[in-house]
Queue: 3 jobs
Job 1
Amino acid sequence: MILALDIGGSFIKAAWSSAPGSLAPLGRVATPSRSLDAFIAALAELAAAAPARPKALAISLTGVVDRDSGRLTCANIPALHQTILAPALEAALGLPALIANDADCFALAEAAEGAGRGRHVVFGVILGSGVGGGLVSGGRLVNSAGGFAGEWGHGAFLPAVAGDPPVLIPAFECGCGREGCLNTVGGARGLEALHRHLHGKEADSHAILSAWEAADVAAGRTVDIYSDLVARLLALAINITGAEIAPVGGGLANSEKLLSNIDRKTKPGVLGVSHRPLVVRAQCGPDAGLIGAAALGWSEGAYERNSAGSVRG
Ligand SMILES: [Zn+2]
């Protein structure tokens, strides 16, 4: 039995998983964001409210655990930033604690119960305000020990020219400290930056996509170049990882037309592509963090196996 937690900057959502694929909500509490002691106390209270003593905590949060030091980078919750969280929770609560990035939990959720169900290698893609991702192979996170696997949005590798007719793509500064990352053009803020660069006009991502769907020429040019850039690097990521499917979440995934445009442009760059869907809308919705956290708990061995090899809580 696993206590799954989706920890956001404002709220902690909790759920109880008595077996892989089963999830019962336990409600939510405000995130104590300034004090580690208060944060641990909140988790202890949630664990005490569970119907039985959990065998493990499995946590989704916005942050990355350093593979070598175990230290957490978590910008939106100051109480957790730069802590070595899993051992602190284990010592305080007497339970194993598993922690993964929210994009990684999204990928785990889609692999276990979403669009990637039944596929061996699933590359979960986030097209939100920026670009994120997570990689699952055989039901397990590739970076379950921490680190940045699946972060295809960073690295200075954006093509310098794109579009038909071609236009120079500036190496915009990225939040990671590099220039020319896909993250600078691949999320909603990037779509807006591209539109500003191409047309000198301010518009939010929703307005750009609506105008494109209404056959506006300028928005069409922006979305065409946007889709080319995303598709080029997504095809590369899929070729490197061998992903069989790339479920997409985040705000931009609400546009089915945008996803099918990206899918159409990605497939020619993918080796051995079949006629199966490749770039698809994610299916787990707002509970992906909890579903993924529970999947993290089960996939990383927070359970016992009986002599027949089946899983029991
Ligand atoms: Zn970057």
Note: The chain has a mean pLDDT of 93.
Job 2
Amino acid sequence: MLVNALRETAKVALDLVFPARCVNCRAEGTLLCANCLDDAVRLDGPACSRCAAPMKSGSLCQKCAASPRQTGVDRLIAAYKYDGAIREAIHALKYEGLRAVAPQLGGLMAQLPALGGMKLDLAIPVPVHPSRLRSRGYNQSDLLAKEVAARLSLPLDARSLRRVRNSPPQARTPDEQQRARQVEGAFEAMPDRVTGRRALLVDDVATTCSTLNACAGALKAAGAGWVAALVLAREV
Ligand SMILES: [Zn+2]
Ligand SMILES: [Zn+2]
């Protein structure tokens, strides 16, 4: 814990000494510059309302339409394709300790038009297992959810959903069914906090959507009425 705290202090000190540089092109000024953001592929076109897969028309993609019983996420909103500068920014936030980029990324998520008019009761970050929290020092989804909640004037609830079982990092297991098995039963929600509520899950990236669906499943098992998810990036 002390080592983590010292490491964080050193990081903050470095952030103060050196001017901000774009995580992607290294231009001075901001952590993610306007040029790189312009080049990022936005996912605000027609998409499946449940899994955000881009598609030409209709409301559900073929895969979602084929599974009518919905225990996972009811609605997924993704801001960008997981690629280029957005991938660099997520990597910096997640693995390089660049917490300072969270406000900008959270701002990009909160301004998505799809969130307008959506009735929501609370924002919930996708939790990490306590052991990973100890080694990383923070949960990047907490940071993003905090920014999103503040901008949408939603209560932030980082305690109603817990990760009770760790699973290997997503990158090593891209297979969807395998991933779904890995996160099955990995989350638990507290009924007294979520029953009858409409929740917005917040995470950095959706790859197979297995983690988000497992979180939504736990929230619904605890009585949540409806669960949407908001991610900065989606693999498409
Ligand atoms: Zn740039
Ligand atoms: Zn779909």
Note: The chain has a mean pLDDT of 90.
Job 3
Amino acid sequence: MTNKIKYAIIGAGCMGQEHILNIEIIDDAEVVALCDTSPESINQCLDLLKNDVSVFTNCEDLVEANIADAYIIATPNFTHIEVLKSVLKSNAHLLIEKPLCTTVEDCKEFASLTENYPGVIWTAMEYRYMPPVKKMIEEIHNKTIGDLYMLSIKEHRFPFLHKVDDWNRFAINTGGTLVEKCCHFFDLMRLIAQSEPLKVYASGNQDVNHLDEEYDGKVPDMLDNAFVIVDFENGVRALLDLCMFAENSEYQEELCAVGSIGKIETAVPSNDSGISISDVRIGLRESEKAKKETIAVDEQILAVGHHHGSTFYEHQSFIKAIRSNSLPEVSLNDGLVAVAIGEAAELSIKEGRVVEMNEFNL
Ligand SMILES: NC(=O)c1ccc[n+]([C@@H]2O[C@H](COP(=O)([O-])OP(=O)(O)OC[C@H]3O[C@@H](n4cnc5c(N)ncnc54)[C@H](O)[C@@H]3O)[C@@H](O)[C@H]2O)c1
């Protein structure tokens, strides 16, 4: 394929706009269509785009028009399943924002409909593509720290932002915080551990955020802090430490992995801090000095997103998969299992028990 990859954006809100800004700086790609139910979101996107694009208010009409090679699905989580069913009537490549769907059941239903689908189907998991995180993963997989035993991921950040119609205030729309937000981290755990999850134990609550808000007489119900432990089949233990009332943290994400011969750690600068560099530090048990490597993200790439350059690198890999007709780096199954761990963690908190992953018949 020598032509540019033509993208259509379904869901032109906050994340759809981040995708647009990234596609605008990729030479062999262009946005040709927008599809959104909100004229305000459409207008915001039109302001970001250099070229004229076609505009649709529903995805059936977009599919019918058949003008794009790839669709980005960036609508609210609860709408993914219906949007996905509609776009399966096309042959387009699909980049589906996380979480794949709000429940394991919906993810399974979607997966069952995709057999023989000709396009690449890719679950968007941007955290895999953050340069310091990617470097850390490479080192762990190269056995720099020996056999991995412990992995911890800390995310301390600001509360959920306001979204179009505030869909993100309720678990029914999002899947719950541990699905909506933390599927990213469960995906990372599984990728780093190179193993499947066995059981999940979690403790968490909504202690601070959104308790003074009301929507149609209902107070939001999204957890704002939690500890989640995931045990993997190969013996790796992983911990998520999430706090969403921690504005002004120096780092938004901190990752630390300990193996049989050493430890590796990195941190991702806070969202929008403008800081482009981070260190990956490796300390071996039998060495007196730790080794530190500074990883930098190109300033132009950093400026077009809120995820430390990752959306740009994710698109490069997605486009490569399209052009080489290869398997997606982040599959439907990856998206499904990440949702399942999140759902298990929500259930563990609700029912105060260990949740075995075989309860989900994955
Ligand atoms: N990967 C990440 O780090 C990351 C970050 C933010 C959001 N997201 C994901 O991206 C998706 C969108 O989140 P957002 O923050 O952009 O929300 P948003 O509310 O800012 O934007 C969603 C847009 O979808 C539109 N929409 C709603 N229903 C639609 C439908 N049926 N057809 C077409 N358009 C429709 C809305 O009008 C709105 O413009 C969610 O799944 C979210 O979890 C991912």
Note: The domain at 127-306+332-360 is CATH 3.30.360.10 (Dihydrodipicolinate Reductase; domain 2).
